[in-house]
Design goal:
Chain lengths: 260, 252
Amino acid sequence: MNLIDIKGVSHAYRTPSGPLPVLAGLDLGVPAGTFAAVVGPSGCGKSTLTRLVAGLMIPDTGEVRLHGERVRSPRKTVGMAFQNPVLLEWRTILDNVILPLEIVAPRTSRASRVARAEELLALVGLSGFEGKKPSELSGGMRQRASLCRSIVHKPEVLIMDEPFGALDNFTREDLWQTMRDLRAKEPFTCVLITHDLRESVFLGDQVIVLSGRPARTQRVMPVDLPADRTIDILYEPRAVAMLHDLRDEIRIAQGREGAH
Amino acid sequence: MLRRIGVPVAAILAFLLLWEAIVRLNGWPNYVMASPSDLPAAYARFWSLFLLGGWQTLWRTVAGLGLAVAFGTLLGMAMGFSRLARDALYPLLVGFNAIPKATLVPVLSLLFIGQHDFNTVMMAFLISFFPIAVSVGIGLSTLEPEYRDILRALGASRVTIFRKIALPKTLPEFFGALKVAVTLAFIGTNLVEIVSPHGRGLGALFQSGATNGDYPLMFAVLIALAALGILLYYAVVFLERTFAGWAEREAT
């Protein structure tokens, strides 16, 4: 059974110049423990999708279900990461990572929270930086800390909205591998919004292509690559074929079919 | 440390020397313009009045400032969280701030006749809450939505989000405004002390100097006011370092 089920979701924002439809008939099913990468042209409503899954918004029509249950409000079993790492400058890296635990599990001891945060920081290679302030870290390190924060409370669902979008290419590839390693240790189900097709193939178990605004599900492509992927796999013919296929889908989504 | 104290002290001494030199070179007698060398005599003669007046001025300023912080923060919160409150209150506040506060002194003295302490505190408050309200309002309304979402997505309440994120994030702006408000509150206190008859505090001492044509006394009061202003300002700087020191960047 799917952990996340999105069926026939449509949504329009109310603007001064009339309703602006962003989603029109979106379908998405993510089995538990898998990774769904969502790609699509910019401005197609991908970020709206993250807010729907997080329960920060309710769609006009259609339904969003977690475990078969309608999502109507935020729940503690969700973690979020954004392009902007939004670390709190007045807290140390350690205390930033702990933040969700203060909300979700206010009665746990400080020691157990610290232990959990340190465990994650070690996994992403930030051991020794616990006491630093965010401003003392590089962009990539801040994003790693942000990732730790988004999963510190062991969420069932991790929602990421272009988390690596602002990083340079090599740092980005490093973080993909960090993400892959985290998945092996932490049992979350993930929805990743991205503009990067290579990222979607490297990380995803399936890639969902959304059409241009208003977005509907245009194509669902399963990614049949082994779980322990390395960056090299992106240069193998099967991955290249997938990337090529996805590129064509994006072209269609942008309404530029045939314009090679 | 030596540099941090030595440099401003040297600057103050240079200022006093320059003042002294200008008065001497022009040959102004002290009923035209007092010089720094006239001041010690004035302090020695009226020291008990300076202590009393200084204390009265200080506590009423701090009381007015306290009210301004409480009221300004509440108003700023209302404007920061509610679009409606922002639209409704901004023109009103700006208009109120544009009124010369000296015109309110007779109004206050008539409304609360004889309540001298209360009038003075009120004036210090009225003149200084505006920058606090505006900065808190702007700090809260410009909070990036992601900051709210990381906690909202976990089902955190508005109060929790305010306490954990919005409040600390607004502190640097708040302290910036508080530094402005400190000096404004001083002006408010002195305004009432000088303008209203039978005033108290350093303002009244200044007024009695003016009545007697005692220039050294008047200037001694001004310097005492300046010293109190510096004292309060650095008290705010100390609080800022303690509570919002993270926002400080190392000077390059």
